[in-house]
């Protein structure tokens, strides 16, 4: 599990971002955005597969994975949307394809709709995009994050493991689960886990939800049919809100589609990324 490394850094407005680029520099670019409480690690298999024909960019959001974590850090969806727009400028990507999962969906949508980030096409994988969202667990932790930060490390680790496990329908490999939990451990990781939940406000999607009808680029919504975190009904609602959006359901997959059905999702994404633009001859 040590073969997934992000060797490059960018000093963003919300702290240091770790990132990596895979594939040939002349290939068409695609950026993969992760969600919460995950990291770019969830994209490892699909990133490598797509890198055969694309220049693939992966990154850990500030406060996540191996990017910076620190007290007082702004890791809200508002901050992440700005950081993503900064990164695209830093990478000199004028209009890449973007694939975004969970919170990454809201990040990509905010960067596009509020910060002028241009995309060639956009794939949204079980995204956080429509009200209402936020589980009872999220609300409880958000209201009492200071208390949860003081949990003994072994209880905290058990809580995070159980929470992340519930994102998968068939269940996660123990080594994969360990890797996903690791960033949330220790003196920096434990408070960072509760910090990102405390700052997870629905207002950041409320600000953009009414603008989905103005999206003019090709969009496909991918959704795990067995998603226990965000019901599949939201997939139909989102696809209906974005003009011309396609909906692809992934059977046997929960919220963490990249782990539950990487082969099927990778095949569908390769098809989506290779599709001709509307009106092209």
Automatic annotation (TrEMBL):
Keywords: Hydrolase. It comes from the Bacteria. GO terms for molecular function: hydrolase activity. InterPro entries: AB_hydrolase_1, AB_hydrolase_fold, Carboxylesterase_BioH, Epox_hydrolase-like. Residues 28-262 form the AB hydrolase-1 domain. Signal peptide: none annotated. It holds the Pfam family Abhydrolase_1. Coiled coil: none annotated. Gene3D superfamilies: alpha/beta hydrolase. SUPFAM superfamilies: alpha/beta-Hydrolases. PANTHER family: HYDROLASE ALPHA/BETA FOLD FAMILY, PIMELOYL-[ACYL-CARRIER PROTEIN] METHYL ESTER ESTERASE. This is Alpha/beta hydrolase.
């Amino acid at each position: 599990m040590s073969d997934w490394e992000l060797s490059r850094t960018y000093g963003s407005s919300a702290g240091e971002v770790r990132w990596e680029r895979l594939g040939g520099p002349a290939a068409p670019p695609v950026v993969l955005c992760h969600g919460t409480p995950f990291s770019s690690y969830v994209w490892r298999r699909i990133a490598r597969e797509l890198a055969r024909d694309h220049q693939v960019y992966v990154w850990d959001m500030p406060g996540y994975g191996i990017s910076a974590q620190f007290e007082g850090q702004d890791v809200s969806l508002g901050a992440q949307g700005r950081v993503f727009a900064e990164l695209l400028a830093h990478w000199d990507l004028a209009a890449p394809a973007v694939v975004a999962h969970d919170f990454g969906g809201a990040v990509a949508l905010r960067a596009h709709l509020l910060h002028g980030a241009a995309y060639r096409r956009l794939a949204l994988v079980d995204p956080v995009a429509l009200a209402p969202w936020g589980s009872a667990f999220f609300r409880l932790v958000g209201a009492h994050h200071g208390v949860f930060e003081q949990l003994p490390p072994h209880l905290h680790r058990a809580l995070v493991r159980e929470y992340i496990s519930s994102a998968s329908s068939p269940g996660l490999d123990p080594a994969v689960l360990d890797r996903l939990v690791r960033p949330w451990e220790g003196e920096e990781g434990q408070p960072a886990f509760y910090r990102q939940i405390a700052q997870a406000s629905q207002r950041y999607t409320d600000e953009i939800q009414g603008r989905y009808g103005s999206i003019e680029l090709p969009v496909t919504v991918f959704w795990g049919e067995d998603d226990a975190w965000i019901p599949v009904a939201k997939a139909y609602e989102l696809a209906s809100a974005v003009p011309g959006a396609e909906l692809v359901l992934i059977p046997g997959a929960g919220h963490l589609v990249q782990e539950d059905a990487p082969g099927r999702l990778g095949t569908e994404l390769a098809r989506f990324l290779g599709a001709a633009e509307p009106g092209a001859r």
